[in-house]
Amino acid sequence: MQCRKALEEASGDFDKAVVILRKRGAEVAAKKADRALGAGIVSSYIHSTGTVGSIIELYCETDFVSGNEEFKKLAYDIAMHIVASNPEFLKPEDITEETKNLAKEVFMKEVEGKPVAMKEKILEGKLQAYFGERVLLNQPFIKNPEMTVKALVDDAIQKFGEKIEIGRFVRFSIKR
Amino acid sequence: MQCRKALEEASGDFDKAVVILRKRGAEVAAKKADRALGAGIVSSYIHSTGTVGSIIELYCETDFVSGNEEFKKLAYDIAMHIVASNPEFLKPEDITEETKNLAKEVFMKEVEGKPVAMKEKILEGKLQAYFGERVLLNQPFIKNPEMTVKALVDDAIQKFGEKIEIGRFVRFSIKR
Lengths: 176, 176
Description:
alpha+beta; two-stranded antiparallel ribbon
């Protein structure tokens, strides 16, 4: 239903319809932002080698959704994504000033000698690329790189009609 | 073999034999303390409710041991134990001074009015009980409360003939 409506709005253009659906997903997600996360599940993924694995919390509003098989699959998929893509932060706001300053120092050396007017811009670009790759919600989803993990969660919010949020996560890997 | 020898030493007394074996296990563990942990596995346990789970690293020396089914079972059992017993620290040394001082402050109020000579002793006892319960290696193993988690690991060290150590661990539980 949702799909067909978006496709009509986009006058038959499938790619446009996807954009419309995604935008709508983000809007639905924003609307539900204030609702309470009263339920959820803990899910884990261990790679077949047994030497790397992750565990995550995925929150929703009710046990009705947290008990749903598709919700469980979403949690499992995100855990698998974390094993594959090794994010350090959940969202950009989680990057501390200290970490930012440390990265800035490193990149500052790389832009030495560039014209002063461009320095700040290049630096900003480098920082965005560096941290963009390390933020879970911004990462391209491992099973469908066309969408980010945030879009994946937004899709689920639209589908289940409940606020859904990733809580804590960790990834362990055996050091050799 | 090991068991029979210990039983003979203990002149047939089974309980004594267990003590002898455990002591020997700790000795073997101490001897292997300097060897390198070059292998290991990541293991997780999610409770059937889906709302609480844990993930751990279990290190050993070689892939020969890390690939062993009994070693995998040990890792899984420890992950399950963590879900059940909710430890905060791996070993006593992991308790920070800050946490200790905070607990001391709380207990200080509880011993107010006690004779000065006894105060320090009661306080020490309270702190030991409080932190003893929160240290993974000191906790009674959930599947066999007769032994601590440390004794469980020491037994495995003796059995596999390799240094074995629990690495990082976390436990997630959905807050409602």
